[in-house]
Please model this.
Amino acid sequence: MEPGRFDLQGKVALVTGASRGIGAEAALTLAGAGADLCLASRDRAGLERVAARIEAMGRRALVRPIDLARTGEIPAMVEGAVRELGRLDILVNNAGTNIRRPALEVTEADWDRVVTLNLKAAFFCAQAAGRVMLGQGSGKVINIVSLAVRHGLPNLAVYTAAKAGLAGLTRVLAVEWAPHGVQVNAIGPGYLRTELTEPLFAQPGWLERALGRIPAGRTGVPADLAGLLLFLASPASDYVTGQVIFVDGGWTAM
Ligand SMILES: NC(=O)c1ccc[n+]([C@@H]2O[C@H](COP(=O)([O-])OP(=O)(O)OC[C@H]3O[C@@H](n4cnc5c(N)ncnc54)[C@H](OP(=O)(O)O)[C@@H]3O)[C@@H](O)[C@H]2O)c1
Model:
């Protein structure tokens, strides 16, 4: 296969939750392969730091501060990105949050917060991007899910409901949009050290227990997703759709 199949020159990507962690790393990976970026999250300063690094690579970076829980604002964000950057080829649906709590203690406010961002906002980002991509006859949607879509993990009822919903949506959108040249896939990261997982890493004994379950013998970092992300964002994956692929050092295999 031509190495050029992984080239993203001339493509435009939108990454949600791009101010830090997995989203920031994903944006830098896509820019490194040649894409121009639209970066979305609430934190303008964080987005601007990532944008400066992308511009230093010679790519364009548009900063879009937005609270994605205000889902009514999503179509205008996507339309603005297309207006300013000319097209939209890749959506990385990454923005997410978590509340760790036993199921009996979950409140309606917890449910609304996690499901609105992790599932509802992700759907409406995909819908707005899908409108553009189906019109173009090509596009890639990459949803960031979790080990929780495969395993029942305690204290993660709401997060699991939302991420499992997003895994299901990945399949439905893949099937609806495959005839129009748009592929929809999901990445399920294992335990990667970021602000989101810092409370776990900080728990005494947690890391030792986690390492006992990870055949690779280490936890991950956001850069561990780069290879799969690039594959799913590029023409190399044009015949791959509706899949949830785990990047977890072997956790789900054990
Ligand atoms: N780290 C892991 O081990 C792991 C494992 C499995 C899945 N994941 C998933 O990977 C994704 C990224 O996680 P991460 O570890 O990189 O977490 P993180 O460091 O906490 O980053 C979360 C990102 O989401 C953005 N965000 C949060 N609430 C938002 C809102 N209301 N509107 C817009 N943006 C919002 C944050 O930006 P602002 O604060 O600037 O808005 C930030 O950029 C999440 O979907 C998470 O569930 C992570």
In short: The domain at 3-244 is CATH 3.40.50.720 (Rossmann fold). The mean pLDDT is 97. Residues 17, 19-23, 41-43, 46, 67-69, 94-97, 117, 144, 146, 189, 191-192, 194-197 surround NAP (CB under 6 Å).
